[in-house]
Design a protein that fits this description.
By secondary structure, this protein is of the alpha/beta class. Helices cover 35% and strands 20% of the residues. The longest helix has 22 residues, at 185-206.
């Protein structure tokens, strides 16, 4: 199923989540895709949509972004990975996967890090998830990646969504993103070409197929998301 309208996408994902709600258990939703694909915007909108009209004092749905599990810049620098920030090896992948696994059965309030893109660092315990919140929307680049430890997440997801625009759209969005963060054009281009786009290709080629694919053009990537 393919569509490109954000409003329609939100409805599609929300309807799929509603159809797969797990009685007596949390429903974990995975929204994956390359950097700048729009997955974060979509995931936030889905959470808002699921919470709309709820009469409960506790949020029905909550959002857990993977970006909060970036390794600190000092660790990345000590390991020669700072220029590769955003690649799989720049995350606390095991810690993130463990956190999602615990969320599936948590009976107490849990706290998770968020990521401040302006400051370029994770903020500890910035996200609180109530034990009665029944839907957790998890979003990130590598949720469906066919590599350990990411593969351990697959059995937890009741719904998986993959968001993947064209390579040219991603390139344009990424350049715009880094320009807004104050990078000079040459620096932004190098960052996009040497790190972001290779990560995007990795995600598109090595991610397990999702229940729902939302895309504009997926023929450029080959392998998993070329039908």
């Amino acid at each position: 199923m393919i569509t490109s309208s954000m409003e329609r996408d939100v409805d599609l994902v929300s309807d799929l989540v509603e159809s797969r709600m797990r009685d007596g258990a949390r429903t974990i939703v995975g929204v994956a895709g390359p950097p700048a694909s729009g997955k974060s915007t979509l995931a936030e909108a889905v959470v808002q949509n699921l919470n709309r009209g709820s009469r409960h004092t506790v949020a029905r749905a909550a959002l857990l972004p993977m970006d909060g599990y970036h390794l600190d810049n000092r660790i990345l620098e000590s390991r020669g990975l700072l220029a590769r920030k955003g690649a799989p090896e720049s995350f606390n992948a095991a810690g993130f996967c463990d956190a999602v696994r615990r969320l599936a059965t948590a009976t107490r309030e849990t706290f998770h890090p968020s990521f401040d893109r302006h400051l370029d660092l994770a903020i500890a315990n910035a996200i609180a998830i109530h034990p009665e919140t029944s839907v957790i929307v998890v979003e990130g680049n590598y949720l469906l990646l066919d590599r350990n430890p990411w593969t351990s997440l697959r059995e937890l997801f009741a719904v998986t969504v993959f968001v993947c625009p064209s390579m040219s759209a991603l390139r344009s969005r990424l350049l715009q993103r880094w320009s807004k963060h104050g990078l000079e054009p040459d620096t932004a281009l190098r960052k996009v070409t040497e790190n972001d786009l290779p990560n995007a290709v990795l995600v598109a080629r090595e991610s397990h197929k999702a229940d729902l694919l939302l895309t504009q053009n997926y023929t450029e990537f080959g392998v998993r998301y070329a039908f």
